[in-house]
Design goal:
heterodimer, A: mainly alpha, 8 helices, disordered N terminus, B: about 50 residues, mainly alpha, rod-shaped
Amino acid sequence: MTTVRDARPPTGTGSTGTRALGAVALVLLVLTIVYGLIISPPDRLLGETIRIIYMHVPTVLAAYAAFIVTAVSSAMYLWKRTEFWDLLGASAAEIGVLFFGVTIIVGAFWGKITWGVFWRWEPRLTTSAVLLLMYIGYLAVRAVPADTRTRATRSAIIGLVAVVNIPIVHFAVDWWRGLHQGRTVLSTIDPEMAGTQLFAMYLSMAAGIVVFVWLLLHRFRVAFLTERVEETGLDEAIAQRRAEGVSS
Amino acid sequence: MTETTLYIVLSWAVTFGGIGAYAAVTIRRGRRLSEQVEPQRRRWMSSD
C-alpha cells in the first residue's frame, strides 16, 4: 500500500529528536516569559532591570557553550580530519556569534538604564567585543574561497585560539576594576535573589541551552546538505566536461 | 512607557526576534536544500 509519506519523502532538517527538543524548548520559553515578565518580582538591588538579566545571562551561557563546542570540534577536526567535526564547529560558531551579539545588545540596554550609557570601554565589555570580533573573524575565514580541507584547517586553528578569550571575558570583572557587576554565569547567582527570581533565572538558562542544542542540530544539517548540494554540482560539471571532451 | 520598561521590552524583542528569525531562516534553508539532495543521503530522516 502506498502512503502519502512514501509518495513524497519528508523534506527539511527535522527529525523525531529535533521535534521533541523543539517542543521542550517551546514549553521552557513560554514558562520563561510567564516567570520572567509576570510572576518574578522586581529585584531588591536591580529593580525591574532584572527582567533584562533574564535574557542577558541565558544568551551568554548559550554563546559560551557554542564557542566551547567550536573549540572541541576544532581540536577533533585537527586530529580526525573528518567533515563532521568541521561542520559541527562552524555551525556552533555561527550560533555563538548570534547569541553573543544578542548578549551585547541586551547588555547595552541594561547599561543605558544603570550607567546612563550604552557602552563603556571597561574590561568586561572590551574583552567581550574582542571575543565577538574573533568569532566573526572565524566565520569570515570560512567565507574566503579555498578548498574544503584548507578552509577547515584554518578555521579549526582560529576556533582553538579564540576560545582562550572566554576565561578572560569571564574573569575580567575580577582581574580588572570596571563598571560591570561580578560574575553570574558559572558562579553563584546573587545569593540575595528570592526563590521565584532564582527559578526564573534557571528556567531562562535551561531554555537558552535547549534552544541552542535545537538550533545546532538544524544548523549542522543545513551545513551537511550544503556540502552535498555543492558536491552534486561539482559532479555534474565534471560529467558535462567529460561529455564535451567525448563529443569534440 | 518609562525608559526602563522600554528597554525591557526591547531586550526581550531583540532576543526572541533575533533568535526566532535565525531559526526561521535556518529551517527554510534546510527545506530548500533537502529538496536538492536524495532522501537516502539525509540520514536523520531514518529516525522519522
